[in-house]
Amino acid sequence: HIGVIAEHPTGWTKELNRVDWNHKGNPKYDIRDWSPDDEKMGKGITLTEEEARNLLGLLEKHFG
Fold first, then answer.
1. Do 46 and 29 form a contact (C-beta atoms < 8 A)?
2. CB 8 within 8 A of CB 14
3. Residues 55, 1: Cα–Cα separation, whole Å
4. Is 3 helix (H, G, I), strand (E, B) or coil?
5. Which residue, 7, 29, 42, 48, is most buried by CB atoms nearer than 10 A?
6. Low-confidence spans in the chain with pLDDT less than 50
7. What is the reported pTM?
């Protein structure tokens, strides 16, 4: 768990996590909504480290 990006009135949270799906030794950065009890998740996006760095660079350019 890296952090919460937003909290919805329903109690669900949009989170940034670093996960190793199926323990393959290749962790990725994951952004998706989670239920308050962390038992349900919404659709999300998963990024490799390189993709996450590229996204960070684009955001830094945009926000200066």
1. yes
2. yes
3. 19
4. strand
5. 29
6. none
7. 0.87
